[in-house]
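Lab notebook, bench 4. The sequencing result for the construct came back, and we need a structural model before the next group meeting so we can plan mutations. Quick request posted to the team channel:

Model the 3D structure of this chain.
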Amino acid sequence: MSYEAVIGIETHVELKTRSKMFCGCSTEFGGEPNTHTCPVCLGLPGALPVPNRQAIDWIIEIGLALNSTIAEWSVFHRKNYFYADMPKNYQISQFDIPICTNGHLVVDVEGEQSRIGVTRVHMEEDTGKSTHMGGDGRIQSADYTLLDFNRAGVPLVEIVSEPDLRSPAQARAYVQELRDIVAALGVSDAKLEEGSMRFDANISLRPAGDDEFGVKVEVKNMNSFRSLERALTFEIERQTKALEAGDAVAQETRHWDEAAGVTHSMRSKEESSDYRYFTEPDLVPMEISAEWRDRIKAALPELPAQQRARYVEMGVDSVTATTLVDGGLGKLFEDAVAAGGSARTVSIWLTGEVTAYLRREEIEIGDTPLTGAALAELSGLVDAGEVSSSAAKPVLEGVLAGEGSPKEVAVARDLVQMKDTEALGAIVDSVLADHPDEAARLRDGDMKVVGYLMGQVMKASRGKADPKLANTMLRERA
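Done. Here's the predicted structure in token form:
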């Protein structure tokens, strides 16, 4: 029997407000454990929460970017559960009246577009951090656990998709698009490695063509796009084998083990009734006026899909445009084009040599001295014939390494294109002499050998020969 995957994603986004959701404690990442805490976020008796207005503005902004309906009024609830990283033993969240509902997001997988529904976008507070010491780092084998409440109470947005995703690749494209939108809005740094954007996936299988859902399994601990895709691929294989063997799939929460590439059972899956939700008695309902909503909507920046479409109109192919946006290279690209650089040439450099350099050095583009003006200058040097296309690569690498401007690097590395007819003529004559058979074929009108001979000239000149001048001289001197 053929099975179809049904996938939904719950995405948690930490907002980069200066203070926590319901108190004035700092949200700065990396502080000494338990130094960004107060009676409110520690849940001490008598401490009352006060909502963070900036956080509410930003969740409305996210909802609008996801084409959601913004509620005219909304309330907070208590989600009750006991766990060590929750000092209050409940989490202030939202249940039946979230701020944003009925949204959607369009994703592209290899040229095929799909509309993915967004059930809700709601506001809650983050938990603390548990570090399990000893064993393999998991609670089952730990000797003891250390608790850090610095993160407890940080504004957290939960974005819940409809179960509209059908493959791991589609799920990856969906969360990448979400990350791009969040980054474009500037409401979060969206750093997966720091936990400021996290994913939980719900996945079930059903016979292909059926409308009924299968038994849902939730997968946690996926801290990268690659992890999400790998975990879902594993779960599809695991559940398929179980169903084909006639075994039942248990409704449970499973932990993704990145090193082993497998999921492990954690606990049976909770339902909403297990959390005993009730309206938060210490917070009044929020009324979101049309004026409030429209003010935020009017200030929305250009979103990634619009940005990619504009780059395509500038002459960049769709794959390169996507890489520019996904890689956070859009501003540098636009600065370079505004300074006079060729859109197509600059985009190829950014998604090729520059991206490769960043990965090799394990740094961000902001850690380099590269500017849009430098890219435009290099583009101008190539267009003017002062630097060859092949020499542009080491020149760009020198700029990235902090060796100076493109012109300075080209001179220092002796990569300025050779236009001296006497010096270039000597190289051409030497190449023709070293390859008499090809020279004879060229004299007889066989133009197929020109490319080979040009390659020898460029090799002998270390890529500095002016291609047009060298080509002419080869024909004349053969």
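The chain has 15 helices and 16 strands.
Will bring this to the meeting.
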